[in-house]
Input
Amino acid sequence: MSVPFVTHDAGAASDGWAEPGGRGVLGWQTLITGDLTPSEQLTAGIAIFEPGGFLALHRHEPAEVYFILEGTGIVTLDGVDHLVKPGDCVYVPPMAEHGVRNLDIGMLRFFYVFPTNSFADITYKFSHAAGASTEPA
Output
């Protein structure tokens, strides 16, 4: 059951990957997810990329939205690179191949949203052989 609530960005990643030859080098803090918060139908959080950080090309069933908060990066959507900066909003359709790279000397941070009850419900399907698993994020 959903109830109204307020959550807070702690400013640090509580989860992440450190796989330069695999899924990527990034962190994230999930702020809204049905398995941790009294919510349903939306999952949201903040992705954090140190300089040189990236999220490898992948696909997943739910659509996704990014809102760039800090830094400069490249978001690749179905093979097309897009320069993103603070204030930019990115829509990723279901099953569109996409990835992210931090181009800045500082942090790249963006708010992300999925129309799903829980982050655990999302299965990432990586495009390259090293990360071709379909395990949940």
About this structure: DSSP finds no helices and eleven strands in the chain. The first strand starts at residue 15 and ends at 19. Residues 130-137 have pLDDT under 50 and may be disordered. The domain at 28-129 is CATH 2.60.120.10 (Jelly Rolls).
